[in-house]
Design a protein that fits this description.
By secondary structure, the chain is an alpha/beta fold. It has a single domain, classed as Response regulator (Rossmann fold). 37% of the residues lie in helices and 16% in strands. The protein contains 6 helices and 7 strands; from the N terminus they run αβαβαβββαβαβα. β4 and β5 form a beta hairpin. The chain is globular, with a radius of gyration of 15 Å.
């Protein structure tokens, strides 16, 4: 399955968006840079959760999907998920891990992340399929007015009066005290 089959011409499914990778592993950056280079997605890169939060704060409307490594120098994927939950229309989270077991897979899905990728090197077709699916799921939730909420203590839907805008600095939770 190639890029053209994931984004068929004239389908209206072509995102004018970026994917943010938050990972401290250079092999993740290299692999995803190569995969997204041939796609219609722009890869933005961060090496820490704090750096990822700053990137989201500057470009939140263009980043509907975040791919986070399971363990980060300044946190983990659960902290990223909790932070994304603090904004009304946050990006959809995909977690990546080199060594995933059934427990991690279940935890990722049960806490509300979209999916788990095994890498690197990542399988190009799988990365593009999961990214497209996450983008579609996020768009579908927003268009229904039922923005998915994440986290173990969060409701699954938000009523129509929920705020739909992100205030400047809404991603400051990524940085401890910065």
């Amino acid at each position: 399955m190639g890029v053209s089959s994931i984004f068929p011409a004239g389908s209206g499914a072509v995102p004018a968006s970026a994917v943010l990778l938050v990972s401290a592993r250079s092999e993740n950056h290299d692999s995803l840079r190569s995969i997204f280079r041939g796609s219609r997605w722009e890869l933005q890169e961060a090496w820490t959760a704090c750096e990822g939060g700053k990137t989201l704060g500057r470009n939140h409307s263009q980043i509907p999907v975040v791919i986070s490594e399971d363990l980060l120098p300044d946190g983990d994927w659960k902290q990223v998920l909790t932070g994304l939950d603090k904004v009304a229309v946050g990006p959809t989270l995909i977690v990546c891990s080199r060594l995933a077991d059934e427990r991690l897979w279940a935890e990722v899905l049960n806490l509300g992340a979209f999916d788990l990728l095994l890498g690197a090197p990542f399988e190009p077709e799988e990365v593009l399929r999961v990214t497209e699916s996450a983008w579609r799921a996020g768009n579908s939730a927003v268009s229904r007015g039922a923005v998915r909420r994440r986290g173990p203590d969060r409701a699954q839907n938000v009523g129509p009066r929920a705020p739909k805008v992100l205030a400047t600095g809404g991603y400051s939770w990524f940085c401890n005290g910065d």
